[in-house]
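Work Package 3 (structural annotation) set out to generate three-dimensional models for the target panel prioritized at the project kickoff. During this period the team completed the workflow that converts sequence records into discrete structure tokens, so that structures can be stored uniformly alongside our sequence database. As a representative example, we reproduce one entry of 179 residues exactly as it appears in the project archive.
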Amino acid sequence: MNQSVNRTPFEILAHYERLSLGHASDTQDKFEAPGLWRGIGFRVGSRLLVSGIDEINELLAVPVLTPVPGTQPWLLGVANVRGNLVPVIDFGRFLFGERTQHTERARLLVVRQGGGNVALLVDEVFGQRTVDEEQRREAGREDDPRLARFVDSRVGEQQLAIFSMNRLVRAPDFRQAAA
């Protein structure tokens, strides 16, 4: 006789969950390994950056933007993200004075700030990057003075700049979007 006939839908789902967990890979354990730092890699102009995975709330394709008059040129406008208005910053223009090109690869990095979120337009997102202790020991310093206040070091073969979104959202010039 089929045992699933006597089970409630909840019991059947719980059974499937146990079976699924029994076959789960140890991928998560690898990511939680001591000494590993995880981040999201992205490009702003020609510069390769990475920010902590815990500092970026989500990645979005570029939605329709509504301009806001009387603001800095790097504030592109606001976007409606699931019913919330989110300011959108041209990250390349804010950091380097260079406009970010709107291409198919351009994305928004949504970052939490004070009273809500802010979205940063970047040229490209590379996805997750992992940095181990050896890479941290061999890390180089940031030479670009425009980045130095947000970046402590550069790591890996690509010399990814570890960029602090927390420092960015607390920077007085970033918080002052009015022209």
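Confidence is low (pLDDT under 50) at residues 26-31.
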